[in-house]
Amino acid sequence: MDVKAVMCDVDGTLLTSEHAASPRTVAALRRAREQGILVGLCTGRDVIGTEKMLEAWGLAGAIDAIVGSGGAELRDYGKDVFELNYPLAGDAIKEIMAHFTDLPVSFVIPYHGVLYTTADDWRVRRLSKVDGLPFEVVDFDGFLTEPRPKLMLACAPEDLQAVVERAQTFSSESYRSASLITSARLYEYMDPRITKTFGLAKLMGLHAWTLDDLLVFGDADNDCDMVANAGVGVVMGNGSEKTKAAADYVTADNDHDGIAVFLEEHVLAQVRDGETGRVDPPRI
User: Fold this and answer.
1) Nearest by Cα to 9 from 234, 256, 160
2) How far apart, in whole angstroms, are the C-alpha atoms of residue 107 and residue 264?
3) What counts of helices (H) and strands (E) characterise the chain?
4) What sign does the dihedral 52-74-267-218 (CA atoms) show?
5) Strand 106-111 to strand 81-84: parallel, antiparallel, or no bridges (unpaired)?
6) Which of 8, 72, 82, 217 has the most CB within a 10 Å radius?
7) pLDDT tens-digit map of 14-30
């Protein structure tokens, strides 16, 4: 399979259900990079927060690029590029928050490796533990004088449907926003121009490549657009039905080295075995 770049979602894709990267998956990504393939991460986490976790995941020195904040941020280490595109205005974030104040949610903004929030509660503490990032309670009136990449609403799984239903009734006369489920405990708002595909297209353009040259791995609904638009879109066995329907291939789940299984059989193997041409794997 002739690809120039491999980009992986993090939570539910790169990471197991224990929030760790398996040695086999890490080894496969390092081998891909050694073969001259650009290797990176495309995640809802912010870039700096993702960078802080690379060593813990065993990927220090093995990542060429990060598309963060769901596509709003781009870091390319080889090109020495960092971009933040289309952050949400602070007043837009305030309008969104006001629409949900009576629901059991915590408002969180990931920024520069810190989870900024309005209150210290169990939802924020759980998110902080899972993401491996510190949280800080701040006055959002002051914090939102500047635009921010996105707003996350953290909730219990049993409250997510109520959050989704409430979101369907939100509108603003002054600002545009988009929203979607990103996990069983997170609902997120961002500028409607921001998607993972948007960030990935910018990354590929930096290298004079197109999305056709890209292989992506994802799992959740917020990965659906990049899985559908990449040259090769692969979804994990634990992925959502929506994203599976958009994918070219389905691999093993995140607890059974789905990334490594696919790379070993259909990207790394052709170099190892001296094969040429496209290798079309069976759907798993």
Assistant:
1) 234
2) 40
3) 11, 14
4) positive
5) unpaired
6) 217
7) 999 999 999 999 999 99
